[in-house]
């Protein structure tokens, strides 16, 4: 029987850095190019890279219903998440706030699993869910107070969070027997086609080619290839709960990176939200205690 163990720092640190750096880099990208055009280019390059890897590794490609399930998972996990995040950042949502909202994925996933898949929620996970909601409310409240008005673009960010969580559950329920390498390629292809259709309507343009190009290359290499590969390795080593808990460290590091790169000075509300989100993710990803049989 497989027994999970702790995830070594040499694996955990790159995962946190890759994910945290993606938000400021994405903000730089949408400042140089239209958000859905940028997302389409990122997903297209990622799809090409993942397809080549799957072919070189001679992965078994999905067929029949498995193709449809992979496509749906890709539309949720990639198209909805990245489209929502980049669309929100292009409309003024700070990178640190985006990272904090998306870091609620483990907590929201646990709540959706309880609601849709009838998985049991422990007391710690319920507390984590409440703290997660409070973290988002505190952060958004602080942003409204600072700007003097409600930014409706945050709804795009929340949509990205919902897509990320729903996509993970859909993958778990319908894509379990699909080769991860080829399945990821199909998912990204489907997402690129969907966002590409939106980009056509958007009439996107690029204002700074060098900045947009460097941003896309960083997002593809560290996010779509190295980041995903390292995360899947962490799941194999320490289990899904421990791997998901790593996301609790993403918002603080994002705030640190965004400060000098984007000039986003973290407010007191953001710092409080990060503290609440970290606690929520730790509680929300805690494994349920194993029930041992009583001796008679």
Automatic annotation (TrEMBL):
Could you tell me the membrane topology recorded for this protein? Multi-pass membrane protein
Gene Ontology terms: cellular component: membrane
Principal cellular location given in the protein's record: membrane
Task: Mention any Pfam family matching this sequence.
Answer: EamA
Give its localization: Membrane
Task: List the transmembrane segments.
Answer: 39-56, 68-89, 95-117, 126-146, 152-170, 182-201, 213-232, 244-262, 268-288
> Does Membrane show up as a keyword for this record?
yes
Q: Does the keyword Hydrolase apply?
A: no
Q: Keyword annotations for this protein?
A: Membrane, Transmembrane, Transmembrane helix
Which residues does the UniProt record annotate as the domain EamA? 11-140, 152-283
PANTHER family (alphabetical): EAMA DOMAIN-CONTAINING PROTEIN (PTHR32322:SF2), INNER MEMBRANE TRANSPORTER (PTHR32322)
Q: Which family does it belong to?
A: Belongs to the EamA transporter family.
User: Which named protein is this?
Assistant: Uncharacterized membrane protein
Tell me what organism the protein belongs to. Answer: Saccharopolyspora flava
